[in-house]
Amino acid sequence: MQQKIIRIGTRESELAMWQANKVRKQLEDHGYETYIVPIKSTGDIVLDKPLYELGITGIFTKNLDIAMLNGDIDIAVHSMKDVPTVLPKGIVQAAVLKRANHHDILVLKDTEEFMAQREGIIATGSLRRKAQWLNRYPTHEVVDLRGNVNTRLEKLDNNDWNGAVFAAAGLERIGKRPKGAISLSWMVPAPAQGAIMITVLEDDEFSKEACALINDRDTETCTKIEREFLNRLEGGCTAPIGALAMINEVDKEINFKGVLLSRDGRKKLEVSKKVKLGAHKYLAKDCATKIIERGGKLIILEDEGIEKDFSIYSTKKLSEVQKKLLPSSIKVQDSDFIKIRFNRIAPKEVKNELENVVLTSKNGVEALLYNFTKDELKFKNIFCVGRRTKKLIEQKIGKVTHVENNAQKLAKYIEENVVSKKITYFCSSLRLDVLPTLLRVKGILVNEVEAYKTMYSPVKLETKIDAVLFYSPSTVESYIKENNAEEIAFCIGDSTAKEAAKYFKNVQIAKIPTVESVIEMVGIHFAAES
Q1: CA 472 to chain CA mean position, Å
Q2: What domain range is 512 assigned to?
Q3: What is the CATH classification number for the domain harbouring 41?
Q4: Tens digits of residue pLDDT in 205-244
Q5: For the chain, percent of residues with pLDDT exceeding 90
Q6: Could you list the active site residues?
Q7: Is the entire prediction scored with pTM above 0.85?
Q8: Where would a tag sit more exposed on the chain, N or C end, judged by fewer CB atoms within 10 A?
Q9: Is residue 453 within 8 Å of 475, Cβ to Cβ?
Q10: Residue 309's CB: how many other CB atoms inside 10 A?
């Protein structure tokens, strides 16, 4: 005997009612009594503005959340792509139904010939679809299209547009996909597109148990990854973000693809990764991190608009790609404040198989490779500082025994774990003495081999700037020779920051020791200052 009738909350559109009835049927197939309670949403009421201008999180779900918290409904049925990645306090995800078609489709007004031409007009209310279309067809015009599925189809008929982009699942569910519609398989869908989500009050055990019976575990797994990716990029209706995770049943793998674009489609960052099913816990995090490392947050910040202009100076020449990661309101100047010259290293320094070798920079690795072939470098244990140095060593020389993110930690590790009390340190003519000093204090014999020369090449700044970007202690030392320390110092790592702190009052350290991470830190800082 059931304890209560489950009240199903839904929006009033034809598609929303179709989805609610699907949930209703599945619950009733399991013996539960239900009825549907239609609720208007803000997104249905305000049709004269693009979604991103309304500034409401969960524009299509907010009124259903309120109805649930008020006790007017027991569960709510949503198009999962419309649901914010963080649910209101007291509301939880109860189930995800088996996913339908995840693709976007192009509904044509006439023919598809315009796609090969310079001129074209496409309609969509989605920033993600607009950005991806403009990225592929930059000379086309994209106009805003709002309303429910039926309203949008009518607007397409009544305007001189070439076509409009829809979610395939929405049209297919209510039987209104036109025969000539084109599947846009190249377009990365919205996270959870094609999936139906059911939410419930956290303490409503009866409704949670009922909904668990109609949950599709594979869809739940994939949409969770997609939504975590979205959440980690801090995206929502105001950022063009796409994500798709799919399970390959044959290989038992999850294939993931994610994309972030600028709103005008000119900038695009993509990521893809494949992992074994069951080993996917960090898949979304790893992929989001990769997008962020390549300047993803700066794309979002630039779209949000930084009104005030700022000027920065990089003590290392930046590539054009790296410069483009900065919002247009941040003006950048750059120059190499240090120059590197590789020394000739005597063959006797690497003649015998060296037991313990220390490398603290990519320059040291490149200096060795300038003098010797990989086969001539017979190192038993290689210790290094920095993951990029590690990556280069393992690509060009051999396996790294241990890596740390700064010299102090590496010295401590060597002191505690190296049995032989002798190391060879391939270093620069200019360097911090932290590592050899710490090791010698502990009785470890350090053979320092000067592999390359670091030469100062300072530039005197003639105009006022707001910040300086530093990438090594040497770049700080070079800068100070010709300039005052009045600006903010953005540093690539701990050692660089420690040197900068001797002169600068405001020193900030990148979370990840990469040039891109320093650039991202600059963009985020000045966005907050605007």
Answers
A1: 26
A2: 305-337+458-529
A3: 3.40.190.10
A4: 999 999 999 999 999 999 999 999 999 987 555 689 999 9
A5: 66
A6: 82
A7: no
A8: N
A9: no
A10: 13
